[in-house]
Write a structure and sequence with these properties.
Blueprint (H helix, E strand, L loop, with lengths): L9 H19 L4 E4 L2 E4 L2 E3 L1 H23 L10 H9 L15 H4 L7
Antiparallel strand pairs: 1-2, 2-3
Length: 116
């Protein structure tokens, strides 16, 4: 009678298969890399699948941010530019020149106040 049992549990085998792309990438970059149970060891540093996925996600977010800044830069307002002229055209001419009408009771109209 011959009995065959798997070397690793189902979960560990699944994790190892998900770590394989990271292993191949590390080796292609010239690092010493191997799988140890359910972790990837690169140049003596153990990394879990969750850590590696977080690093990839972080790197992807940074790359997206850089690409967005390159292809969609913030508009700069140079003096005399069309954008500045449009903004100025929408503003009131001079807010300080606008006078509001104020009701003054006739009883107090003749009183003069001196500035101290």
């Amino acid at each position: 009678n011959i009995w065959v049992s798997p070397d690793y549990s189902e979960q560990v085998s699944k994790t190892r298969s998900q770590l394989l792309p990271f292993l191949f990438e590390a080796r292609s970059q010239g690092h010493s890399a191997f799988l140890l149970y359910d972790k990837l060891v690169v140049d003596g540093i153990k990394k879990t699948l969750v850590e590696l996925q977080a690093e990839v996600e972080e790197r992807t977010e940074l790359e997206e941010e850089v690409v967005d800044n390159i292809f969609e830069p913030e508009p700069e307002m140079d003096e005399g530019s069309e954008l500045e002229e449009e903004v100025v055209a929408r503003l009131p001419e001079n807010p300080d020149d606008q006078v509001e009408e104020v009701y003054v009771d006739p009883e107090f109209q003749d009183n003069k106040y001196e500035d101290e």
